[in-house]
Amino acid sequence: MTAPAEARDFRAALIAEISAPIVAFLVEQGVSEPPALGAPTVEGPDLAMPCHRFAKALRKAPQQIALAIGEIAAAHPLVAKAEAANGFLNLSFSWPAVAARVVAFAEADPAALGHSDLLAGQKVVIEYSSPNTNKPQHLGHCRNNLLGQTIANLLARAGASVTRLNLVNDRGIHICKSMLAYQRAGGGQTPETAGLKGDHLVGKFYVEFDRQFSAEYKAAFPNGDGPEKDAWFNGDSPLGQQTRALLRAWEAGDPEVVALWRLMNGWCEQGFAQTYARMGVGFDRIERESEIYQLGKKIVEDGLNDGVFYKLPDGAVAFDQTKIGLEGKKVVLRGDGTSLYITQDLGTAAMRHDKDQFDRAIYVVGNEQDHYFKVLFGVLGELRPALRGRLTHRSYGMVELPDGRMKSREGTVVDADDLMSDLHALVAETSAERWAGLEGAEASRRAEAIGLAGLKFFLLKFNPERTFIFDKHNSIAIEGETGPYCQYAHARATSLLAKAGAPTAAPDWAALDNAPGRGLMTALMSFPGAVQRGALQLDPSHLTGALYDVAKAFSSFYNSADGRVIGAEAGALAARVGLVRATRKVLAEGLGLLGITALDEM
Questions:
Q1: Radius of gyration, CA atoms only, the chain
Q2: What separation in angstroms does the CA of 453 have from each of 441, 550, 597?
Q3: Residue 474 is part of which domain span?
Q4: Tens digit of each residue's pLDDT (9 = 90 or more) over 201-256
Q5: Does the structure show a pLDDT above 50 at 1?
Q6: For the chain, how many structural domains are there in total?
Q7: Do 323 and 461 lie in a common domain?
Q8: Nearest to 10 by CA among 596, 559, 562, 550
Q9: Within 10 A of 215 (CB to CB), how many other CB atoms are there?
Q10: Could you tell me if 481 and 373 lie in one domain?
């Protein structure tokens, strides 16, 4: 792989190059820290610089200053025109000169594809997915999986050394609910006898537990005058008591309980592996709560001895949240000695820091846990001051359905496997006529690639913090801000290049000096900066936006007479083929960062 280039945005680099002699002149004249050229305030020019702020230092009128520095700017080979207007310097690019640079940049410089050294030398661990082994993954998990995977890709593109982690939540009261329901109603079923993926079978019993619990609650309080369901579960509920007893037996190592737990968790993880493989999501290391949760107990014990924690009357161990600017207390270990989520999270963070020596740890978790992570990071900072400032919660909003939020325990979720299959089927149905001559395997391959492109792009195109409604029909549309639209642009570029062949004439870069050509070059120049912003802000929507801009600008280009490739004069053909080749490369790279297949034919 080519070594990463230095961190830069190509458009910004061009602007800095043009600005350099202007800035040098102003400094010589006594202006301290003059700004670079920026965006114009009027239509027409490509760059502008207001000169009013220099009037006092130079003792000249702004218009005179603009005229003077305009002469300097006009001498630059990348500048076609420099004009002074009302104290502003307005510049227009020499687009033929820019075109030669843009095409060469895209073809030869990895920085054109977003490679940089912004985060070089940094060790980053990122935890995402982290499913519970009591149910299959659903649409919400899809957003988590894809956010984590793409953020990891962006961080690596910025030069960081990234370790992708999946902490499987394979123990706890929620796991015992599925186990208890299986004991009561499983009848010895297996994934094979039930004809279900393993995680789907286990999830069936998680829903069954909720059905049994709701029936129990209704029987106990037929008039609806009972306590909150959670209070009933944690109190006098017979099912709640049996579930807690199962958890205690598991933690005590009861052979029969542990055997059932291993069996059902094995089914679930096998199902997860199939889902991840289909979705194109992977990890460098899979951790399991059951293997590391005891680490947290030792951390809590040490913290209790050091005065970070204190004991409650019932024997539970707690943290005084006023130490970190919050109110109240946080229990970090139950009075009966069993662990909580925070128990194992404390131990896991310490273990990872010892093992990975990370500079930064990122947790991709939904925004319902915002407060929890403030507490967790605060407690960790008290236990291990070296972790302060190294922990980040990449919070994200929920994905909702047109009829509201999903509820796993009630079975009202959009299952990830079913969703991928539904999108595949929808694409196949809408493309059947166009693909009539294709072999079945090839049609299926394309349908899968387009369906997954729709899913991934839709879930990543929103700022992570935003909650939105998922529209599966819109996600696979071939028009608009979608993954399939970007795939189509790549396929169209591939087709044009195949038909054009290899030009033999020297490129006439002036053939790209028109509105669609300039628009496409601007989009290509902006792409690297978007990749870098996505890495720094942990926000893939910068990437999806930039990729869509390239695809949209390319569509405008090839649909215009000024962008005609086939049949163009030799010099124009060579220039346009160069630009199409650069565009195809950037589209393929952007799609790849999103985990989307760049199809050559649609």
A1: 30
A2: 18, 16, 7
A3: 416-593
A4: 999 999 999 999 999 999 999 998 999 999 999 999 999 999 999 999 998 999 99
A5: no
A6: 3
A7: no
A8: 550
A9: 11
A10: no
Please check whether residue 467 lies inside any domain of the structure.
Answer: yes
Residue with tokens 């529209």, as numbered in its chain: 471
Which H/E stretch holds residue 125? strand 123-127
Cα dihedral 448, 449, 451, 454, rounded to 10, equals 170
Q: What is the CATH number of the domain that holds 83?
A: 3.30.1360.70
For residue 300, tell me if it sits in a domain. yes
Q: 532-558 pLDDT, tens per residue?
A: 999 999 999 999 999 999 999 999 999
Whether the pLDDT of residue 2 is over 80: the answer is no
Same domain, 587 and 504: yes
CA gap 181, 173 in Å, rounded: 12
How many angstroms separate the CA atoms of 126 and 360, rounded?
A: 8
| DSSP state letter for 600 | S
314 & 454 share domain: no
CA distance 95 to 170: 59
- CA 595, chain centre distance (Å): 10
Q: Is residue 47 part of a domain?
A: yes
Per the document, the length of the chain is 602
Helix (H) or strand (E) holding 81: strand 79-85
Residues 332 and 465 in one domain: no
Residues forming a β-bridge with 93? 79
- CATH classification of the domain holding 527: 1.10.730.10
313 and 443 inside one domain:
no
Q: Are 212 and 239 in contact (CB under 8 A)?
A: yes
Token pair of 121 as six digits: 């030398």
CB 567 within 8 A of CB 561: no
Contact 122, 359 (CB under 8 A): yes
pLDDT at 412: 55
Widest pairwise Cα distance in the chain: 92
Q: DSSP letter for 396, please.
A: E
Is residue 341 domain-shared with residue 452, that is, in the same domain? no
Q: Which helix or strand (DSSP H or E) is residue 127 part of? A: strand 123-127
Residue 186 amino acid letter: G
pLDDT single digits (tens) 156-187: 999 999 999 999 999 989 999 999 999 999 99
| Statement to judge: residues 465 and 359 lie in one domain | no
Q: What are phi and psi of 392, to 5 degrees?
A: -130, 135
In a domain, 453, yes or no: yes
Question: Half-sphere exposure of residue 336, counting CA atoms within 13 Å on the CB side?
Answer: 9
**Quick one: DSSP state of residue 235?**
T
